[in-house]
Amino acid sequence: MSKTLEGKIALVTGGSRGIGAATARALAENGADVAISYASSKDRADAVVEDLKALGVRAKAFQADQANTDEVSGLVAAVVSHFGRVDILVNNAGVFVMGQVHDRANNVAELDRMFDVNVHGVATAVRAVAPIMADGGRIISIGSIVGDTSPWPGLADYSATKGAVAAYTRGWARDLGPRGITVNTIQPGPIDTDMSPADGEMAPTLSASTALGRYGKPEEVAAAVAFLAGPQASYITGATLNVDGGITA
After folding, report:
1. Which of 88, 108, 175, 244 makes the best surface tag, with the fewest CB within 10 Å?
2. Cα–Cα distance measured from residue 227 to residue 105, given in angstroms and rounded to the nearest whole number
3. Cα gap 86→40, rounded to integer Å
4. Is 158 labeled as catalytic in the residue annotation?
5. Quick one: pLDDT at residue 109?
6. Which CATH number fits domain 9-242: 3.40.50.720, 2.30.30.240, 3.40.470.10, 2.40.340.10?
7. Which of 146, 139, 162 is CA-nearest to residue 225?
8. What is the pTM of this model?
9. Which of 38, 158, 168, 215 does the annotation list as catalytic?
C-alpha cells in the first residue's frame, strides 16, 4: 500500500479509543508518525501506541485534559519537543451531555465543561499548532451532524458546540489558506463507540434514520480523516464532510 503520509507527524487528541484510536491507526497505516492524547485512560492509550508501533511508525501518548487550555498548549509543545513538529492535527477529543433548556436539573457545570472541551480545547490546539505548522499542513476536526440539526430535544448545548467547530473551520480556512494549510470538519452520524454504542437505547431509532439502515464504524470515519490528511485533498478546505450513513439525506 502506498504510504501517502510517510514522513508526516500527526497529533490526534482523544486518541485512546473510538474514532480517535481508529484515526490514529489509519494515519499510521499511511505512514505517519502519530502522537495521541488522553485524559485518563493511560492503559488504553498505551495499548493504542503499541498497535501503532507494530505498524512500523513512531508513536507516543501524552496526557492532557482538553478542557484545560494550559494543558492543551503544553500538549502541542510536548509533541513538538518529542517529534520535532506537527504536520497534521486531528481535533477528536469531545464530550457529550444532553439537557433541555427548561430543565432545572440541567447541570450548568457540565455545560461549561462541554464548551471547554468541544470548543475551547479545539481552538486552543489550533492556536498552538498554527504558528509552528509548516506550509501545507492539515487541520481536521471531528464535529457531528447535530452541528447542523437538532433532531431531538435536549441536544441544543451539544449542537451549539459542534456548530461552533464548523464555523471556526470556515474562518480558519481563510486565515491559513495563504500558507496552503487546509482546515476541514468531519461530521459523523451514529457511530458505534462508547459514547453511542450500536446496542444502546437509541440504536434502533438511529439506525432506522440512516439511509443505509445501520450504525457506522470508527474506521469509516477514520478513512475520511486519512483522505483529508493526504496529498489528494490539497484543494479541499473550509469544508464540512458528513460521514453519517445518509441520516441527513
Report:
1. 108
2. 42
3. 23
4. yes
5. 86
6. 3.40.50.720
7. 139
8. 0.96
9. 158
